[in-house]
Design goal:
HTH_MetalResp_TranReg, mainly alpha, ArsR family transcriptional regulator, disordered N terminus, 12% strand, DNA binding, 5 helices, 3-stranded antiparallel beta sheet, transcription
Amino acid sequence: MTSPAVSSRDLPHPERDEIRLEGVLHALSDPMRLRIVRELAAAGAELSCSHFDLPVTKSTTTHHFRVLRESGVIRQVYQGTAKMNGLRADDLDDLFPGLLDALLDAAARQAVRIGSG
């Protein structure tokens, strides 16, 4: 079986074995990136970049998505003109069992505690 042709719109992602704990923790240490991951986890599906209403500039939003993608937390693919984002929960759970669930639970508890969501 041959692999599909790589287009200029394909985005680089780390292979599962290239994902590092420190990169994941760094990516999730930013409140905006954690918010993106929480929304993706809650949706349980891919969401377009335009779905997210973040209180930052478009270039900063793009930066946050790039950090999440390059750390292996999300996968981004183009569908037509939309860039779709999906949480790499299976990869993260295989590499770091329980980490994602624990972080999402802790983030939800913090949001309730400080009244941010």
